[in-house]
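Run log // design_07
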């Protein structure tokens, strides 16, 4: 019957839809009669009727026990209400997912690179880890504003109130006009910067990229700490 397929579309199981359709068509029936008319196995019919009662579609009365469906108008009203509720839940959950996806990674150029760096430094509460090729004066000024533990690995970390580690280059020293690096803030945010003839920054909170950034910095930091303790 078409009604069975429609009821299944609205969340009823195959047996529930068949039982409810049978009650709608035939009126008051015993569980045995429901099973015989609907084709539901007798071993399952009581579980099906109890489920329909729990969902509010069926009423039980009398001795011996009989069952009847609520009115057609009540069934349609109940299905309409529950469908509307489910649509609202779906809308809310989809909205949350969309919000979580927004702005995981953002690109900065020009003067906004240092502005974003300063924002991240000032908002950090527990720890900043910075791996920088060369600390230009404007970057040093920003890092000096840190209000939490600062760990710096660089060619020129001197002068900062930080746990500092000096990078030694075996070959030619890098130009003082160039500053490339990666910073991790509170273990949750990352910022990669590239300052040469142009300034570019990449910031975000993507868990995967933050973890990748840690994999780049933390092994080097552990090695430098071991060397410093010898």
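design_07 sequence
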């Amino acid at each position: 019957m078409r009604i069975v397929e429609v009821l299944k579309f609205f969340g009823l199981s195959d047996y529930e839809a068949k039982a409810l359709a049978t009650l709608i068509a035939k009126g008051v029936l015993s569980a045995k009669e429901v099973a015989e008319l609907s084709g539901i196995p007798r071993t399952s019919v009581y579980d099906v009727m109890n489920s329909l009662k729990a969902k509010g579609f069926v009423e039980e009365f009398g001795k011996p026990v009989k069952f009847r469906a609520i009115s057609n108008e009540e069934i349609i009203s109940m299905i309409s209400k529950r469908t509307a509720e489910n649509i609202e839940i779906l809308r809310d959950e989809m909205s949350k997912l969309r919000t979580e996806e927004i702005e995981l990674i953002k690109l900065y150029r020009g003067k906004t690179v240092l502005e974003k760096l300063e924002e991240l430094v000032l908002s950090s509460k527990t720890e900043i880890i910075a791996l920088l090729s060369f600390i230009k004066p404007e970057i040093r000024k920003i890092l000096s504003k840190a209000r939490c533990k600062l760990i710096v690995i660089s060619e020129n970390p001197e002068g900062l109130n930080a746990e500092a580690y000096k990078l030694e280059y075996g070959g030619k020293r890098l130009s003082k006009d160039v500053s490339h690096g990666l910073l991790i803030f509170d273990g949750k945010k990352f910022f990669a910067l590239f300052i040469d003839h142009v300034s570019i920054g990449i910031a975000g909170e993507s868990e995967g990229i933050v973890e990748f950034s840690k994999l780049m910095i933390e092994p080097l930091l552990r090695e430098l700490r071991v060397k410093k303790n010898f």
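The mean pLDDT is 87.
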